[in-house]
Amino acid sequence: MRTLKVTIMAAIALILSMGIGWATMEDTSPDKEIAIMLVDFQVAIKAGDMDKIMDFYSNDFTNSYGVNKDIVRSELEVMAAQGILQDLAFFEIEEGAITVNGDYATVTPLVVGNPMGRTIYRCTLKKETDGVWRMISTDLEKHPHGYYSWYRHNLIFGSKNGNKKIVEALLAQSEEIKGSTALREAAKFGHKEVVEVLLAAGAKVDGSAALREAAKFGHKEVVEVLLAAGAKVDGSTALREAAKFGHKEVVELLLAAGAKVDGSAALREAAKFGHKEVVELLLEAGAKVDGSAALREAAKFGHKDVVEVLLAAGAKVDQ
Fold first, then answer.
1. What distance in Å separates the CA atoms of residue 37 and residue 39, rounded to the nearest whole number?
2. Residue 139, beta-bridge partner list
3. What confidence tens digit (pLDDT) does each residue in 6-51 have?
4. Cα dihedral sign for 25, 29, 34, 39?
5. Which of 127, 175, 196, 283 has the most CB atoms around it within 10 Å of its CB?
6. Are strands 133-142 and 117-127 parallel, antiparallel or unpaired?
7. Residue 206, CB half-sphere, CA atoms under 13 Å: how many?
8. Three-class DSSP labels, the chain
9. Per-residue buried b or exposed e for 108-120, using 16+ beta carbons within 10 Å of the residue's own CB
């Protein structure tokens, strides 16, 4: 076993001086092959070349969090689609060492820079039968804000983007879900299956954040799941948001679940944005037109058909 410190800049200089890529470097030492492989890996990430990125992972890749090659690809594809993959990471190995032991090697610490700070990994590689070094595991050793922050960041990211595979893999490593942010983000973006996974893992629907976001963006199926899980419709927040954006079917669900139309908030918002059918639905459910708020908003924004409905329901013209 031998250890050699190799900087990224030194590896880049070596590549430029020889004019060839890591996969063809049969005459170099394993240490240099691995250093160049890591540089090429970073170049592929910067270029967003998904096929080339994934060729750096062994088909046998897995880590202590249960993440395999397929899960890695699904997460990276989401990041690439959002245009954030290229800015996600830079590698530093100048303070670490590449340790080679036969057809296996470790790089530790491998420092990965990302928007949250510098994260330290232990990377294990294997020289496979085609002569190429590939990663078989990358395990977290240190996160700038601690393990829980890393875990929470990735759980929220996976939930927000509907990446069921990564959410399931992360949940398998934790006995408890703290907070409701992941559930709220999954609900907000309408990822029903992820919402179901989070609820099954113990995510709480206490409070109205997840229900409010699902209602606001008109995700009827998610609203149904949350209500079935015990989400409360106390108060008018979810109803008001659904009414504001004209989601009639969601309004119907919330009313059937016991949402109250006391006060004028939901009616006022529906009237303001010209959602005639929602206004009619709220009036049928008992919303009051006492005062002039709903009528004033409908008139202000020129919603003639809504004004007619409100006047027919007894709304009084301002004196």
1. 5
2. 122
3. 444 444 444 444 343 444 445 578 888 888 888 888 888 888 889 9
4. negative
5. 283
6. antiparallel
7. 6
8. CEEECCCHHHHHHHHHHHCCCHHHCCCCCHHHHHHHHHHHHHHHHHHCCHHHHHCCECCCCECCCCCEHHHHHHHHHHHHHCCCCCCCCEEECCCCEEEEECCEEEEEEEEEEECCEEEEEEEEEEECCCCCEEEEEEEEEECCCCHHHHHHHHHHHHHHCCCHHHHHHHHCCCCCCCCCHHHHHHHHCCCHHHHHHHHHCCCCCCCCHHHHHHHHCCCHHHHHHHHHCCCCCCCCHHHHHHHHCCCHHHHHHHHHCCCCCCCCHHHHHHHHCCCHHHHHHHHHCCCCCCCCHHHHHHHHCCCHHHHHHHHHCCCCCCC
9. bbbbbeeeeeebb
Total-model pTM: 0.66
pLDDT higher than threshold 90 for residue 224: yes
In angstroms, the CA 152 to CA 183 distance is 12
CA R_g for the chain: 27
Name the token pair of 232.
């409360």
For residues 254 and 274, the answer to whether their CB atoms sit within 8 Å is no
Q: How many residues does the chain have?
A: 319
Which two structure tokens, joined as six digits, stand for 105? 């090697």
